[in-house]
TrEMBL record:
One of its GO terms (molecular function) is lactaldehyde dehydrogenase (NAD+) activity. It is found in: Cytoplasm. The lineage of its organism: Eukaryota, Viridiplantae, Streptophyta, Embryophyta, Tracheophyta. Its EC number is 1.2.1.9. One of its GO terms (cellular component) is cytoplasm. This is NADP-dependent glyceraldehyde-3-phosphate dehydrogenase.
Amino acid sequence: MAGTGIFTEILDGEVYKYYSDGEWRTSSSGKSVAIVNPATRKTQYKVQACTQEEVNKVMEMAKSAQKSWAKTPLWKRAELLHKAAAILKDNKAPIAESLVKEIAKPAKDSVTEVVRSGDLISYCAEEGVRILGEGKFLLSDSFPGNERTKYCLTSKIPLGVVLAIPPFNYPVNLAVSKIAPALIAGNSLVLKPPTQGAVSCLHMVHCFHLAGFPKGLISCITGKGSEIGDFLTMHPAVNCISFTGGDTGISISKKAGMIPLQMELGGKDACIVLEDADLDLVASNIIKGGFSYSGQRCTAVKVVLVMESVADELVEKVKAKVAKLTVGPPEENCDITAVVSESSANFIEGLVMDAKEKGATFCQEYKREGNLIWPLLLDNVRPDMRIAWEEPFGPVLPVLRISSVEEGINHCNASNFGLQGCVFTKDINKAMLISDAMETGTVQINSAPARGPDHFPFQGLKDSGIGSQGVTNSINLMTKVKTTVINLPTPSYSMG
């Protein structure tokens, strides 16, 4: 169970502690933040409501610990990361349990997230040793007008303190995707977990604690965004911010100052279906891409743009598959579980009602019980409907019928988002042309959008984000180049 066994020390009565200077602590505020189980709509857990002064202390310790950590050999950093990964995977059950209860993620998927996170940490350790173990050697005479009198040595050095802010939907995986690159690169790490997902993150952080990382190097501070959010993101000690979430990231980017930013802020991922597409393959991918984890994924299929000539057939195939989706509690591994909060459910319902008022075709009856919304396919959606443009983050998928490929591309590119998209066709030449024309960070050909594997580059255009993720790109973002130039009194040429 969560908060038991090796995790006993992270819990104080019924309130989970925060992590600072290598110890689990209670906040001086004497307050806590409640975490509501999306399925039961009752308080499941409580975490510390940390203060700004506690943020200051965490940042001070992070700056100090980073100086020593930067002098730790690469192989030693990697060794500790491998150890943390092993502890995480060995204790997947209690962490997965908290994911089920905090964010209503199906039990099987929760276990998969924890195991995947351990694999990501280990991969990052190995990749970091390779990337950071190499530098460049440049000679001055390669530039016109110069003799060989200068030798330039370049290497990658850490930035300092990295602030990591993961989202609720993958709180463990998207936390370690920030933590592991930061640590292997020689940075210290301050984690501000989402409220829904905080307990899962605290359990994950304890695995790093048990691995033996130095005190102060990793911190996990919980609390209300309204009280410590801006204070964290605008803190002068922060040298880099890696954020995954919604449009809050736009506000952060405007306030952050001159530091590197890694932002993934959601998407309206379009699925363009051509007349020659394998419609059975398309239907399977629409179900996987649009309804897994109840559509609460940045890379979920959020709008289907299908050629009119095959639309009827495709809609019937998708309807048949939607009818087979199971709906219910996450403990029973149902396909569709409660969305994360009542406010999310209300927002989704608002999009549905707007589509109903404007004449969309409901392929299923709209049904909602609390935070649980049954899967819904909306056909004959038009561009004047909100759901054609807004991100529902729920199990509701709009279908727009198009008369040309250009119409589909134009709809995709008119969105303020540009995370991912996909195109289904048997003509690879058409697929490549469409891919080049789509204004998205990634285009999947004949498959639904997806973030992984975790070493692939992952980035968005427009309001979908800044910078690129993926193990290698994250390591590079969390370092800067340092050069040392050796000046020779006379030109020197090998074997000259």
